[in-house]
C-alpha cells in the first residue's frame, strides 16, 4: 500500500476508496496520573496530495456522499494495523460518525471488527456532529458495541452543544473534553457550565474524563483541575506509527454500567415509583406546562420528548416548541399522523396504529444535569397522571422512545 500512496497525488476520492489508499496513524492516549499510555487513537491519512490530511479527505468524501464508506475503511485499516503491531494490553480508540453506525458495513469489515474486539480493548468514539440525527440506529450500535465488550467515548464535548445534551442518553464510559475547553484563555461561564455538566455525569456514572489538546505542561494542570484523568495531545506524542515498545500505564479504563433500553412506554417506567392519581385533562395540561416552563429557563442544551398520542399536535404547541429550539433544545414530537418535518429543530415521529403510546400523554425533559417528566395514561375513560424529577428515571423513560425515533 505504501507505493500506491506515494504516487496517488491526483487520485479522486472514489479511487482512494476503491484502492484503499488510506493509512492509519496513531496518537497516544495517556493517564494523567503517570503520563504513560493506556491506548492509541487511530487517525487517517490519505495519499500524498490534496487529500492527505484528514479534514480534506473527509470533506471530499462528504461531497461525494461517501462518508460512511470512508469511515468503515479507516476503521478497518486501523484495526488491521493494530493487530499487526501486537500491543494486546493497549486500547484502540476508533472514530465513527453516528451516520456511519446507522449503515450496514461490508461483511469483511464486520468480520474484522468482531476479531478486533475479541483481541483488544476497543473504545468506539462517537463524534458529535450527527449524534441526534439517527438516535434509534445510534443507540442500537452503542448496545451492539457494548455487547462485544467495546467501550464508548463521546467526543468533542464543549465544541458542539448537541453532544452535551446527548451525553446522558449515550452513557459514555469516557467523556472527551474538546481542546477548546482545555486551551481556553479564560475560565468563562460557558466553559464552567460544560465542565460542571461533565463532572456531574462522570461522578454519577463512574465515567472517565479525557482532555484533548494538551500541548504544553500548563494544559496538564488545567486538565487535572477539570477532573480529567486521561489526556491526549502533542505534549504526549504526535500522530505516527505505533512505537515498538510501550510501557503501559497502570491506570485502567472505566466501564460504566449499561442502561437497559426497554420496549415499554414512559408510563410503564415512571408510574411504579411515582404518585399517580386520576386527574382532568386541564390539570394534566398544567403539569405539562410546568415541565415546559422549566425548559424555557434552561441555559444549556437539552432534549424535550413529547408524546401527544392520538390527541393531535396544535399550532400553539409548535410555536412554544419553536421558541425552545432557538434556545438550543432538540424537540421530538410523537403522535398519530405527526408530520416528519415540523420546522426548525422539531422532529415529528408518526406512531403506528397498534403502538401503546397512542393511549398515553408524555413530556420528558432531559439535560446534561437534570430531568423532569409529566406522564399520563387513559384507562376506562379516566386519565391517570404523575410527575417525576429523578433524572435517572426520566432518562430511562426517554430510552423507551428511542426505538421509535427512526430517521
TrEMBL record:
Signal peptide coordinates: none
Domain EAL: 6-253
Superkingdom classification of source: Bacteria
Pfam families tied to this protein: EAL
A GO molecular-function descriptor: cyclic-guanylate-specific phosphodiesterase activity
SMART domains (alphabetical): EAL (SM00052)
Protein name (Swiss-Prot/TrEMBL): EAL domain, c-di-GMP-specific phosphodiesterase class I (Or its enzymatically inactive variant)
